[in-house]
Design brief:
With 389 residues, the protein is α/β, with parallel strands linked by helices. It contains 15 helices and 13 strands. Strands 3-4-2-1-5-7-8-6 form an 8-stranded mixed β-sheet, with helices on both faces. It has a 5-stranded mixed β-sheet with strand order 10-9-11-12-13, sandwiched between helices. The structure holds adenosine-5'-diphosphate and ligand VHF.
Length: 389
């Protein structure tokens, strides 16, 4: 049976995922939390408290990715722009100024806690186009492996109206799903979703858990955004749809008080949107079922055994390549009998893949003239038939 929104509101709190089981966590921080709307400056004490919270999460062995807004809000005041709506070019100029302040503030506060931060500026193309998606994913994965905290924002200075997210809620959902995060936390000025916009509906009720995003749930969001914050609840629900369909839980929690992540761990009120699958399984299904394969890679028996035991596909095990594909596109992998054993996102275009087929990884540089990735298909980008339900 499908639960409606109001039924899901009555689901017992024990339906919430355990906070302690969330190993890779993306956290979105909105402009209104981080900046003072009167002075257009950073709220230093708030950022210090987030630094403490993230340090605690990292000490528990978790990986943290921050998606932080605030560049436009910080930059506009420095440029002397009057309050009110900004033209696109003014917003972009403000972001160029404010992003420097923002990145420096994170670097300073986190360094005091022994944490290295890294700035990642992305456009929708970087998270959605296959070729660039692999680059963004692999850079962020490397930073996480090395213990750093990536601080992501949209590359507002170059993104034009048609090709930008515009709000960081959806950007955060894309980043979280691209990184197969277990959960995405949207820190907001409100402690979750209510049955109606609370400012206009004093009797609106708080919703603890959403198991399915029905039209009834979507209708609960009011108008989008304010001058300082772009999305309102509308973009948060869109973000929730993106997240849960890719296996990432999403939670909306209040960031108004200091130490909001500690509060979340201690059971503060919030709204969880539940994903039905885990993010790794959901990504494998996406690779296997959603993407249209653009080519075929034939592999030998040794490579087939290596893949089945969880290894990446190296060029040495490839006996043939066909089709026209770009780096990052999906291909079918067939064994020596011509049977499909799985699909994957390939790290080289068709022409390059054919040239390195059968060669060992250390010959890649001499063959192609540049040092590419050792694996033709990384194990994280593989979906083998025997792994799928
Ligand atoms: N059904 C709803 N439940 C909760 N908040 C809602 C709802 N509909 C609209 N809102 C508004 O959405 C706001 C949060 O979004 P927003 O201002 O964009 O915050 P942020 O800066 O955190 O992205 C709330 O303060 C509230 O006014
Ligand atoms: N990329 C923009 C953020 C835009 C945005 O989504 O703001 P918010 O609604 O505060 O999360 C900036 O840094 O100003």
């Amino acid at each position: 049976m499908t639960l409606s929104g109001t039924q899901s509101a009555r689901i017992a709190l024990d339906a919430r995922p355990e906070w302690r089981n969330q190993r890779r966590i993306a956290i979105k921080i909105g402009s209104a939390l981080l900046t003072d709307s009167e002075t257009g400056t950073l709220k230093k004490a708030w950022l210090e408290a987030i630094g403490d919270d993230v340090a605690e999460l990292k000490a528990q062995g978790r990986e943290v990715i921050l998606v932080s807004s605030g560049a436009i809000a910080l930059g506009r005041r420095a440029l002397g722009l009057a309050p009110g709506a900004l033209k696109l070019e003014e917003a972009q100029a403000s972001a160029a100024v404010g992003q420097v302040t923002l990145a420096h503030a994170y670097q300073t506060v986190f360094r005091e806690r022994g944490i290295t931060t890294a700035q990642i500026l992305v456009t929708p193309g970087d998270t959605e186009e296959r070729r660039r998606y692999l680059n963004a994913r692999s850079t962020i994965a490397t930073l996480l492996k090395l213990g750093a905290v990536p601080v992501v924002n949209e590359n507002d200075t170059v993104a034009t109206a048609e090709i930008r997210y515009g709000d960081n809620d959806r950007l955060a959902a894309r980043v979280a799903t691209m990184m197969t995060a277990d959960c995405l936390v949207l820190l907001s000025d409100i402690d979750g979703l209510y049955t109606a916009p609370p400012a206009k509906n004093p009797h609106a009720q708080h919703i603890d858990v959403v198991t399915q995003i029905t039209p009834e749930i979507e209708a609960m969001a009011g108008d989008a955004g304010t001058e300082l914050s772009r999305g309102g609840m509308v973009t948060k629900i869109t973000a929730a749809k993106l997240a849960v369909s890719a296996g990432t839980h999403m939670v909306i929690a209040s960031g108004k008080e200091l130490h909001p992540l500690r509060a979340l761990a201690n059971g503060a009120p919030c709204t969880w949107f539940l994903a039905s699958a885990n993010p790794v399984a959901a990504r494998k299904r996406w690779i296997a079922g959603t993407l249209e394969p653009k080519g075929v890679v034939l592999i030998d028996d040794g490579a087939a055994r290596a893949l089945r035991s969880g290894r990446s596909l190296l060029p040495a095990g490839v006996t043939g390549v066909s089709g026209a594909f770009e780096r990052g596109e999906a291909v079918i992998i067939r064994d020596g009998h011509g049977c499909e054993i799985g699909r994957g996102l390939i790290a080289y275009c068709a022409e390059e893949a054919a040239r390195i087929a059968g060669r060992s990884s250390h010959e890649i540089e001499a063959t192609l003239g540049y040092a590419g990735r050792a694996a033709l298909i990384h194990r994280d980008d593989l979906a083998l038939l025997h792994d799928l339900d």
